[in-house]
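Input record, target 12 of the design panel.
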């Protein structure tokens, strides 16, 4: 929940509020945030007015003890959790514009801990992307152990952790858990540093792709790599187009561009948009990988806009014969990485990260 102070309210209330203190606020209505200024669905704000009363509460309420849980425990059912992680990579800021024209800034932070050999992506949004913490800014020169408080699981594209309204990042954690984690980082620093270097090379690839065979990929087990492949038998029956939620991607029984509260993820202000998935078996001279493309990657693979794939699939006019000949006759590149969820179960599977024809 947020509240904004304007003009003379800053003088009137600004000095009252202190971090970690408890207040009783009266005569301050709650109202939905204007869509233009939303950070998340369901945002509400406190409206301060001339009758608003703010009173500090003298109480012995203490903050809940932070319960850190390992990355390997993340599942689709996980609620907001607190985690330690060694920062391996922080991306540049990218911008996402929603169907309603709202612009969001996003950064991806890759972290790892003692419970897993595969890094986890944490997407931070909006205000959190404006990083000023000197430790986080020096992530590529000094090891940074950070505590991420109040993260949530998102599955719109892949399986990642994402920031919420309550998320904070603490680069000065304390306590026995931190000491134990710090000792683990120091004891394994050479291996972790190599992992960081590999990840940076993957995230910031050279102009010339480093191409491996499928067998080499299977031997690597951990990293993200480019493979040069064909699809010998593209199957149109494995191409599915449907109306889906623009937030969670799941199927909805509504026409396109229909505003809704999603019946699957229950988020407000969702829109039904075209969604497409295509499953295929990619091969090279050494082996085979079963992969699935979603949305933007389908566009790259088919060389068609997603709306065109969606419409032509549904009315039966998609020239899949030409697409099939292209995919089976010409080699293209796929970036693949291990599936985090299956890795935890000791059954390694590979997922598509990107598609390129050049």
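The sequence produced for target 12 reads:
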């Amino acid at each position: 929940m947020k509240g904004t102070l304007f003009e003379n309210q800053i003088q009137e209330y600004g000095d009252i509020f202190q971090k970690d203190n408890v207040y009783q606020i009266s005569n301050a209505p709650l109202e939905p945030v204007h869509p233009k200024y939303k950070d998340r669905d369901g945002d509400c704000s406190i409206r301060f007015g001339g009758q608003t009363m703010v009173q500090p509460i003298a109480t012995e309420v203490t903050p809940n003890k932070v319960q850190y849980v390992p990355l390997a425990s993340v599942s689709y059912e996980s609620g907001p959790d607190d985690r330690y992680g060694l920062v391996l990579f922080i991306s540049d800021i990218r911008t996402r514009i929603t169907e309603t024209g709202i612009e969001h800034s996003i950064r991806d932070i890759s972290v790892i801990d003692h419970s897993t050999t595969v890094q986890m992506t944490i997407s931070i949004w909006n205000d959190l992307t404006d990083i000023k913490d000197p430790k986080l800014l020096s992530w590529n020169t000094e090891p940074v152990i950070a505590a991420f408080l109040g993260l949530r699981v998102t599955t719109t594209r892949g399986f990642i952790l994402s920031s919420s309204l309550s998320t904070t990042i603490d680069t000065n954690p304390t306590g026995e858990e931190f000491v134990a984690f710090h000792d683990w980082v120091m004891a394994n620093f050479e291996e972790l540093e190599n992992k960081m270097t590999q990840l940076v090379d993957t995230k910031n690839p050279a102009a010339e792709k480093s191409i491996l065979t499928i067998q080499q990929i299977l031997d690597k087990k951990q990293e993200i790599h480019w493979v040069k492949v064909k699809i010998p038998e593209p199957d149109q029956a494995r191409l599915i187009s449907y109306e889906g939620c623009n937030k969670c991607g799941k199927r909805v029984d509504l026409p396109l561009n229909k505003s809704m509260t999603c019946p699957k993820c229950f988020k407000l202000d969702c829109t039904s948009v075209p969604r497409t998935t295509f499953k295929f078996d990619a091969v090279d001279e050494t082996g085979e990988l079963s992969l699935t493309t979603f949305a933007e990657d389908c566009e790259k693979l088919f060389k068609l806009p997603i709306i065109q794939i969606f419409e032509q699939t549904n009315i039966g006019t998609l020239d899949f014969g030409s697409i099939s000949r292209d995919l089976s006759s010409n080699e293209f590149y796929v970036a693949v990485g291990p599936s985090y969820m299956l890795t935890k179960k000791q059954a390694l599977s590979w997922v598509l990260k990107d598609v390129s024809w050049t």
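Residues 71-203 form a domain with the OB fold (Dihydrolipoamide Acetyltransferase, E2P) fold (CATH 2.40.50.140).
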